[in-house]
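Our preliminary data section would be incomplete without showing what the modeling component actually yields. Below, a chain of 113 amino acids is followed by its predicted structure, encoded as tokens that our downstream tools consume directly.
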Amino acid sequence: MVMLRGHGGGCCGINYMSGFGLATTADEIRALLAQTRQQQTRGILVEAVVTNGQLQAYPNVGRALKETGFNLATRFQNPHSSNICNVFHYNRVPRKFARTFGGIDRDMVGGGL
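Predicted structure:
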């Protein structure tokens, strides 16, 4: 059963989903998204991290994420588990930001902004 949780610390407002499995459906994901402020407020992020192993064992998960509007943000190999992690983001109406954030230039933080 998929669960929706807040990122640790509660400072960024990002929610994440976990607990994907064979029974995961797009309707289940939509029901969880409906519980977030994302449905009322633009610019709030929901994240899902699914390993290659999970996607192979449960192909329905990738289809359900895509169907509900999640996009693959990045992939990386976790050095602790050796798993390939696929990071998906859902952001219904993303906000565009200028090159700087409160005087912090994107070059200062590795250009990832």
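The chain has a mean pLDDT of 82. The longest strand covers residues 71-77. Preliminary results of this kind motivate Aim 1 of the renewal.
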